[in-house]
Amino acid sequence: MEELSERTTSACTMQDNDIHTTADPDNITLRLVRNGDSPQKMAVENSCRNLNIVKSVDVLYQEYRDTSKQQEIEQRRQRDGLPTTGSGVTAAPALQLQLRNSTHSLSLWQNLEAVKDSGLLKTLEPKEIILQEAMFELVTSEASYYKSLELLETHFLRNSVLVNTLSQSDMHFLFSNIEDIMKASERFLMDLEHRIEESILISDVCDIVHTHAVNHFQVFISYVINQAYQEKNYRRILQENAVFREKMSILENQPKVKGLTFTSFLILPFQRITRLKLLVQNILKKVEENSEREKNAILAHQELERIVKECNEGVRKMGRTEELISIEKTLEFKSKSVPVISHSRWLLKKGEVQQMSGPKSTRTMRSRKLYHPIYLFLFNNLLLITKRSSSGEKYQVLDSCSRSMLRTEDLEDQGQMLACAFVLKLLENQEDREVSYMLKTESISDKLRWIYALTPNRRTRFLSTSTHQPDSPQVQCIQSYSSQEPDELSVEMADVLHILEYTDDGWMLGERLHDGERGWFPTRVVEKIMNAEVRAQNLKECQRIQQAQEGAQGARAASRGRRPAKSSQYTPTWPNL
């Protein structure tokens, strides 16, 4: 940490010939001398100090991340009139800043001594102070992230006792390219800290984010894609290597780790790149429209979104290929064989349902003998209808159909007996015939999930956010949930979701506002957003981001073929690492 701060100071000194420093190494003051600077601006810059943000942050990133998400939930709860951990009534966004003063939070920009001494808090508009806080949080959270990475390196990666229990290949499996990740964070943090040292009134941070995302953040993609193997091999090593297991337990229980697990450090890079996108998104919501800061925020957000998508797609692609190979090994084709493995194919849903045969009378409905179990494999472009073998290890393919040729009919309006039943119609099956299957599921939610998976264009109860409905139902996640099936959506604390469908037995189909991802999740992990103003604000912010990005894309398309304008990118302050 000290080395990073020293490098930053050195880089700041060399960056601009107009920067002068005092001789006191314990209180280095930066003074930028430019012709035409206003007295207020000179006062701000003269009060700017080497803030040592890296040294002052004592919160590990895991603590910051959990606390910040809980604060978002508390803020929404208070606006909904629900009980919170605090007391009293505070108006947003002041509440957000008040909450960030709590334990395990990062410091506020307005609480810096340099800010207090500058007089800025008396002259700036409240919305500009909120924007300063949003930019400052991006910087301090990066410092917290780097602090956790450094602990991963010094406490685990460089621990000779632990390392000696592992083979060279296992070391690679566990730590992958984490050192490249650290270098990227170090460069990034140097430039962010230098920006604040230039002037305590932060001009921008998204230009720095964009440049680093373009030039240095590719390392996140390879690390995240490798994460599935990392987790799998960590579990294997724990089972097979008793000495490693013992040493790891000792290291995890030491005070400096603060009760956090080794795996919580391994997943930091993906958590950070996704959180960084949300922090930039938060800045984009607050900057002036059609300003240079908005332009930089849009560029940074687009690049981070691309990286996050590549991470997700890389992980999915590797998992999907393994899954297809595994499924194909279990299939036995009765007549016409269908190739399952394809680069453009992935599993959407699988599971057992009951097929009903015979006349649809009340008597036959009650007879269990008329229900026969079948097992469905639904891919993005293909449905396989199979029968499980007596051993349960093989599946005999009875029929197949292109997904685009599937139709469904819900039978819930035909009486309680058919509440969990639906008709699946294959317009053109493997024998080029139209056939229908009457199917029954264990619950109403299972039925709806199958219907929406089989026929995705079916209209949902509520419309998508893209329709811009002013008061559509929204929920906020209060408990993280990891998807258990392909049609489910993993959600994190504080995620805001637009509801498309729900069932009476505890499931919701939702669309996450910040990335548009859809899927099912249990009702128990979310709370309904009651305040209409909060819902409207969430939708408005979502639309603003979409419109800003669409406007930027349109401008780029219109300027194709013209000579590009000179870039306004800053000059990096870090030396070659």
Structure commentary:
With 577 residues, the chain is an alpha+beta fold. It has three domains: 51-78 and 107-321, Dbl homology (DH) domain (Dbl Homology Domain, Chain A); 334-359 and 369-454, Pleckstrin-homology domain (PH domain)/Phosphotyrosine-binding domain (PTB) (PH-domain like, Roll); 474-549, SH3 Domains (SH3 type barrels, Roll). The chain is built from 21 helices and 15 strands. An eight-stranded mixed sheet has the order 3-7-6-5-4-10-9-8. Strands 14-13-12-11-15 form a five-stranded antiparallel sheet, with no helix packed on it. Strands 1-2 form a two-stranded antiparallel ribbon. Strand 13 and strand 14 (518-522) form a beta hairpin. Helix 8 runs antiparallel to helix 17 (268-286) and helix 13 packs parallel to helix 18. The longest helix has 39 residues, at 292-330. It is globular and about 80 Å long. It starts with a helix and ends in a 19-residue tail after the last helix. This is Ephexin-1. Residues 68-80 have a biased composition (Basic and acidic residues). Keywords: Cell projection, Guanine-nucleotide releasing factor, SH3 domain. Residues 130-314 form the DH domain. Pfam families: RhoGEF (PF00621), SH3_1 (PF00018), SOS1_NGEF_PH (PF22697).
